[in-house]
Structure formats: C-alpha cells, structure tokens
Amino acid sequence: METDVIYHVFMIGGIGLGPGAHRYFSHRSFKATRPFKLFLMFCQTIAGQYTVLFWCQVHRVHHKYADTEKDPTNINRGFMFAHLYWAFRFSPECKAALETVDVSDLKLDKDVMFQYRYFPIFSFLLCILYPTIVPYLLWNETLWISFWANMFRWLLNYNQMSFANSLMHMYGKKPYDKNVSAAEYLFCILYTYGEGYHNYHHVFPWDYKAAEFGDFTHFNISTIMLDVCARFGLVYDRKVVSKNMIERRKARTGDGSNWLTSNEILKNPIWGYGDIDMDVDDKIDFHGYLFDQNNNIIDKKNES
Ligand SMILES: [Zn+2]
Ligand SMILES: [Zn+2]
C-alpha cells in the first residue's frame, strides 16, 4: 500500500513541477483555465519545493544567465553545487539577478501571491500532513511508516528538479546548441516524464512540449497530459516552434547528433514477424538467408 501512495503522490508532485511550475508558470508556454491553474498549484505545493514565485524567479534567472556566475545553479561550480548546495549559496551576482528578473506577471496573479503569503501553512497541509494522514486513516498504516514513506516521496520529487540542474547540464547530446551545457539525457527524460530534453528546452524555452517531440515514443508523458487537457478546454494557446526554425538552428549551432528521434527509439515500429514495415536486415539470419513467415528460406541476401 505504501508503495502505491509513494508512486501516486510522486506523480502528482511531478505534475506540479513539470507542466506546472516549469512549463506553465516559469515559461508561460501555454495558457490554462483558472481551475486547471489551481490544480497545478495544488500539485506544486504537494511537491514541496518553494513557492511558485520563488521557483520561477530562480528558474528564469537560470535560463537567462545559464552557466555564468549569475546562474543560481551554475554547473561550472560542480555537480553537488548544481544539485543541492545552490539553495544555500547564492552568489552576489546571482542575488542581484534574482532581484531584477521580471516576474511581474506572477506578482499580478492573485492566486500565486495567495500561495506565497500562506506558503508555510499550505506546505505543511499538502506536502506533509495530507500524504501522511490518508494512508493512516484509510488503510490503517502506522503514522511512523506513513510519515517516512512520504518523506521518501518528497526526496524523489526534489531530485526531479535537482537532476534538471545537475545531470541535465553535464551529460548527453546537444543537437540544437553545442555551446550550452544543457543536454538531452535519457535517464532524466524518464525520471521527469519528459523534462529531460534540456538542450532543446534551453534553446526554445517557450515550447510547451519542452522538447522537439511530444509523443509517447519520446516518453513525453507531461505533454500527452497537456494535450488531453487541451481536448477538454482546460489548456489552450500551446506554443510550439516550427520545424523549419528547429532545423535551421540545428544546422547552425547543433553538434550534429539527432538525439532520440522516433526512428532511433522505435526503429520501424512493427507488430511482429512479417509486418510490411519489417526491415529486410531483420529477416536475414547470420548465414545470409531470408526467411518467410513459416521459416522457409525464400532468398539469399544480395551481397551487393
Ligand atoms: Zn526551463
Ligand atoms: Zn537548465
């Protein structure tokens, strides 16, 4: 039962971070109805990572001044700094940048400021009390186990953001801009359900997909969720980048790699042996024979 709770609350927290604090509040990459915005804030509070206002302030500065002294999570200061220590060690340049970065849109948002004002109360109720008390009341879990299971869940959520600041700026390919530290890293893509296309995201931060591709084969679960919400009218004005602009940028500053295109992940998706899309190389055994569906030799591989 506890693993269920950890998993579900982890997912809810992740929605508050990826589509919520990140794509919606920080980057304004799509618009949302008020109920959906409140839902995202609810999830973000469960995740337990600062107020929406502060989260976005830090993240906007990170984008504007990435890899410099002004960057709050400057990767040039090492993995541990970008992953964890940054929150306790803002440089003077960074503090100045945090004060001047534009967050006027958020300060005009009454809901955002309401959360900001009463954050300790909301945080205690939603991030700590609610996930602890529900298993205790409904499934007779002990408070001790419930509390620590939720703390573990909080840690998992916290690391989603932390890996975005550390690993995503250390490892991976850079198909869009080889001059920035942000890169595309599969582990982070899976762990954050689609936020790990960080090279693309730093180049085109206004794209609501936070990636070139927003489909299931690219593990972009957050984008699929937003697309479903758009069908119900909860999300609208989703901003994207044209294929043309992406290709031009890739040619100009990319590292020549083509990380995680559909073909790379699911090279020729097929239903099984005999599918019309099956690659001829896959049908040929190591002796060079081509087989039909009944395993009868029908041809020898043409060596030319
Ligand atoms: Zn971002
Ligand atoms: Zn980044």
UniProtKB/TrEMBL annotation:
Obligatory cofactor(s): Fe(2+)
Sequence intervals crossing the membrane: 6-26, 118-139
Keywords on record: Fatty acid biosynthesis, Fatty acid metabolism, Iron, Lipid biosynthesis, Lipid metabolism, Membrane, Metal-binding, Oxidoreductase, Transmembrane, Transmembrane helix
Sample GO molecular function, one term: stearoyl-CoA 9-desaturase activity
Keyword ATP-binding found: no
Membrane topology: Multi-pass membrane protein
Main location class: membrane
Keyword Signal: no
Domain Fatty acid desaturase: 16-205
Compartment(s) where it occurs, according to its Swiss-Prot or TrEMBL record: Membrane
GO biological process: unsaturated fatty acid biosynthetic process
GO cellular component, one term: endoplasmic reticulum membrane
Family under the similarity heading: Belongs to the fatty acid desaturase type 1 family.
UniProt comment concerning the protein's domains: The histidine box domains are involved in binding the catalytic metal ions.
Name of the featured protein: Fatty acid desaturase domain-containing protein
